[in-house]
Amino acid sequence: MTDTVRLVLADDHEVTRTGFVSLLAGHPEFEVVGQAADGQQAIDLCLELQPDIAILDIRMPVLNGLGAARILQQRMPDLKVVIFTMDDSTDHLEAAISAGAVGYLLKDASRDEVIDGLK
């Protein structure tokens, strides 16, 4: 990759967001340009910052990740949405795909799995 991949990260737990940013710190090909604590904030940041990828927790207040993914796909069809969750159920995976997500990362994934998933 020659260009930096710009990310918006949305999770209602600050420690999760901080950990994710730290995980990417050694990978200059990725830049977290915005962080949100709920789905509506994620939408607002994505519209403002125009990232390449939105990483959304599936469960957040105000608007969950699936709802945010649907809206983002309507308003920003070129944006890649990745769901980032602890929930490994097939139902949620299928719902994420239906909402327009191109990826589904589990929060217990290794650093390499996360990096590979974002590439």
UniProtKB/TrEMBL annotation:
<dbReference type="InterPro" id="IPR011006">
    <property type="entry name" value="CheY-like_superfamily"/>
</dbReference>
<keyword id="KW-0597">Phosphoprotein</keyword>
<dbReference type="InterPro" id="IPR058245">
    <property type="entry name" value="NreC/VraR/RcsB-like_REC"/>
</dbReference>
<dbReference type="GO" id="GO:0003677">
    <property type="term" value="F:DNA binding"/>
</dbReference>
<protein>
    <submittedName>
        <fullName>LuxR family DNA-binding response regulator</fullName>
    </submittedName>
</protein>
<dbReference type="InterPro" id="IPR001789">
    <property type="entry name" value="Sig_transdc_resp-reg_receiver"/>
</dbReference>
<dbReference type="InterPro" id="IPR039420">
    <property type="entry name" value="WalR-like"/>
</dbReference>
<dbReference type="Pfam" id="PF00072">
    <property type="entry name" value="Response_reg"/>
</dbReference>
<feature type="modified residue" description="4-aspartylphosphate">
    <location>
        <position position="57"/>
    </location>
</feature>
<dbReference type="GO" id="GO:0000160">
    <property type="term" value="P:phosphorelay signal transduction system"/>
</dbReference>
<feature type="domain" description="Response regulatory">
    <location>
        <begin position="6"/>
        <end position="119"/>
    </location>
</feature>
<keyword id="KW-0238">DNA-binding</keyword>
